[in-house]
């Protein structure tokens, strides 16, 4: 019964994606210098507590079980790989995944914020992709808001006894998608439309970011499930000490 | 082939398909770089060309944009670092499981032998 529902929902998604084929448009992180200074500072300040808690959490987790260090490295590397792959999407433009879902469900959103900001710094400094001034905003959307949602979805579905693979998929999928929704909101706050104001802008930016991201979010969900399957087969003890 | 192996293979095939199909389905699309449409939208909303107030540090240092080929090289470096670490860690885990499984089997074998000996005595 459940399988049938899954199939139906996947089909539904596929249809939605096909209908949503929009004109050429593309975007990922917010570009350098594209947010007013006040916004840059504000987003950075919002990020700081998460980053501090993240550092403390990493210290605590590693103190409890040193072996989780390898798992943390793997999770960080997963973010590195996924956020470097620009993938063509149904909207006729490219975007990339975030890879933060895995970190969120294994280590929690705060630790993931540290992993995320490392990648964002790498891309901002070496690739001129994203930016140092917009680091706070990008960090909030990709390394905090997305992971928080992924974590919440994961906890909720586990409590409801949903199949674990489906849970992991949905957590990573929704976390990825949510990242780009938050990016749209951040941009809309900075650039409200003359007609329709903030709301109209959100819809415009969502049209770019979210639709492009849907198929990529599906891929991210799938890849996260694959990694989790591998870890459950080969690293049971580590997962146990993270109470996964 | 175990059930997990099958699931993983099927999932990976689906992932690759999702990534590749748009390329063939939308032959005329640009599949352009990342940030251009976002800035276009901002210009559209503002009704004028937007001038970023801060240029990337790297572009400042270079005195211009990062060449496309170099950019793709650095993106590859990023992927490479990531894949390297993932492969290293997973490789260790896989090897470790092989050994622990083997040791467990041997221990079991020894126990059975010992039991047989005590039975004989």
Q: What is the N-to-C order of secondary-structure elements of chain A (H for helix, E for strand)?
A: HHHEEHHHHHH
- Nearest-angstrom radius of gyration of chain A? 18 Å
Strand order of the largest sheet of chain A: 1-2
The main pleated sheet of chain B reads as:
none
**Number of β-strand runs of chain A:** 2
Strand-residue fraction of chain A? under 5%
Tally of extended strands of chain B?
A: 0
Q: How many structural units, i.e. domains of chain A?
A: 1
Q: Which of globular, elongated, flat, extended, rod-shaped describes the shape of chain B?
A: elongated
Measured between the Cα atoms of the first and last residue of chain B, the distance is 44 Å
CATH architecture of chain A: Orthogonal Bundle
Backbone CA Rg of chain B:
28 Å
> How helix-rich are the residues of chain B, as a percent range?
over 70%
Structural features, described:
The complex is a heterodimer of chains A (244) and B (121). Chain A has 244 residues and is mostly helical. Helices cover 75% and strands 2% of the residues of chain A. Chain A has 9 helices and 2 strands, in the order αααββαααααα. Chain A has helices at 2-19, 37-64, 68-82, 100-107, 109-127, 135-159, 164-190, 197-234, 236-241; strands at residues 86-88, 94-96. The longest helix of chain A is centred in the last third of the chain and has 38 residues, at 197-234. The two termini of chain A are 27 Å apart. Chain B is elongated and about 95 Å long. Chain B has 121 residues and is mainly alpha-helical. In chain B, 77% of the residues lie in helices and 0% in strands. Chain B has a domain at 67-121. At the A-B interface, helix 3, strand 1, strand 2, helix 5 and helix 8 of A face helix 1, helix 2, helix 3 and helix 4 of B.
């Amino acid at each position: 019964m459940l399988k049938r529902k899954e199939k139906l929902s996947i089909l539904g998604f596929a249809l939605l994606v096909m209908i949503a084929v929009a004109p050429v448009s593309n975007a990922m992180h917010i570009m350098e210098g594209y947010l007013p200074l006040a916004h840059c500072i504000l987003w950075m300040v919002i990020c700081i507590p998460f980053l501090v808690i993240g550092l403390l959490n990493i210290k605590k987790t590693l103190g409890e079980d040193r072996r989780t260090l390898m798992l943390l490295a793997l999770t960080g590397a997963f973010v590195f790989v996924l956020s470097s792959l620009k993938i063509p999407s149904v909207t006729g433009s490219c975007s990339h995944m975030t890879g933060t879902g895995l970190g969120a469900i294994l280590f929690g959103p705060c630790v993931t914020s540290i992993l995320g900001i490392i990648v964002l710094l790498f891309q901002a400094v070496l690739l001129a992709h994203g930016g140092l001034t917009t680091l706070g905003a990008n960090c909030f959307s990709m390394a905090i808001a997305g992971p928080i949602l992924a974590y919440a979805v994961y906890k909720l579905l586990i409590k409801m006894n949903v199949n674990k693979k489906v849970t992991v998929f949905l957590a990573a999928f929704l976390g990825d998608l949510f990242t780009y929704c938050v990016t749209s909101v951040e941009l809309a706050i900075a650039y409200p439309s003359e007609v329709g104001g903030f709301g109209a802008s959100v819809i415009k930016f969502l049209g770019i970011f979210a639709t492009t991201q849907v198929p990529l979010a599906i891929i991210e969900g799938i890849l996260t499930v694959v990694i989790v399957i591998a870890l459950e087969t080969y690293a049971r003890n580590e997962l146990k000490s993270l109470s996964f | 082939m175990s059930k997990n192996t099958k699931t993983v293979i099927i999932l990976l095939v689906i992932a690759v398909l999702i990534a590749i199909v748009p390329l063939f389905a939308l032959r005329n699309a640009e599949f352009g770089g990342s940030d251009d449409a976002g800035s276009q939208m901002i210009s559209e909303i503002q009704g004028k060309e937007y001038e970023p107030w801060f240029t990337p540090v790297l572009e400042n240092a270079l005195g211009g944009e990062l060449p496309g080929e170099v950019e793709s090289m650095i993106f590859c470096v990023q992927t490479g670092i990531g894949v390297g670490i993932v492969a290293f860690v997973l490789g260790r885990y896989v090897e470790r499981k092989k050994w622990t499984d083997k040791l467990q089997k041997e221990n079991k074998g020894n126990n059975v032998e010992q039991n047989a000996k005590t039975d004989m005595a």
